[in-house]
Amino acid sequence: MPHSSTKKNLERIYRKYNRRSNVHPDPLEFLYAYDNLRDREVAGMVAAALAYGRVAQILKSAGAVLEALGPTPAEALLSTSPESFSSALCGFVHRFATGAGVCALLAGIRQVLVRHGTLQGCFCKHRRAGDDTVLPALTGLAEEIRAAAGSDPGHLLPAPARKSACKRLHLFLRWLVRSDAVDPGGWDRVSAAELIVPLDVHMHRVGRRLGFTDRKAGDLKTALEITDGFRRFCPEDPVRYDFALTRVGMGGDTEFQELFSRVVKK
């Protein structure tokens, strides 16, 4: 059985930090502007795709793309030619990404919306009986977007089949599947129990300290091991603590130290 003090500390951290007032600065905040599910999906995919590098630049870049799409991003994609966005995003640069890569991503999203109505519809088409994580369906969604893009969106759209942790895609799923004070949700056909931890350096460190993994590589296998560790404390929602743990002071918060006071053995 999981150690009860660790569970209590995880819940204490969740209650303290999992608040909308703690979200800024985070690309997640863009999603709060959209009540329509398709608009939220598009905004979420854009924000997640650009969620690397310095947070100030992430917010600037994601904001620029969403401003070009206007107040109803999905409708804009469906009613406007892809070429018009090429003009609007001419000169766009976000570290390794260019306007051409963003336009390719948007073109792929557009075609998936045409075929399936929503990104959730495409995702669910690729689900298989017996899947215990989102990975097979996420792989299908990413492959459909990439195949429909016309040109390569590059690293803006990671490939789950390559066994990388795909942190940004799993962030997207956390935002759309979970629904609480922080994550706005909207995907009512997907269970939070199937989610995988969006693995970054910080969550990798947490997972190692808690004894969920001893692996040094930040890849898919490590993400799955850490997810399994959290699943022992919250099987219905193993990503429940993700946002809160990223907001805890890096080693300076008493509750954070208490969390690690007794390592959970696998």
* DSSP strand content: under 5%
The H/E string reads HHHHHEEHHHHHHHH
Count every helix, treating DSSP H or I runs of 4 or more residues as helices: 13
Mean residue pLDDT:
92
Description:
By secondary structure, the protein is an all-alpha fold. It has one domain (4-259). Helix content is 52%, strand content 2%. The chain contains 13 helices and 2 strands. Strands 1-2 form a two-stranded antiparallel ribbon. A hairpin with a 2-residue loop joins strand 1 (93-94) and strand 2 (97-98). Helix 2 packs antiparallel against helix 9 and helix 10 (201-209) packs across helix 11. It is globular and about 55 Å long.
Produce the secondary structure layout.
Blueprint: H1 4-17, H2 37-49, H3 55-69, H4 73-79, H5 82-88, E1 93-94, E2 97-98, H6 99-116, H7 119-125, H8 135-148, H9 167-177, H10 201-209, H11 220-231, H12 242-247, H13 254-259
Antiparallel strand pairs: 1-2
Characteristic terms for this protein:
266 residues; mainly alpha; 52% helix
Summarize the structure.
This protein is mostly helical.
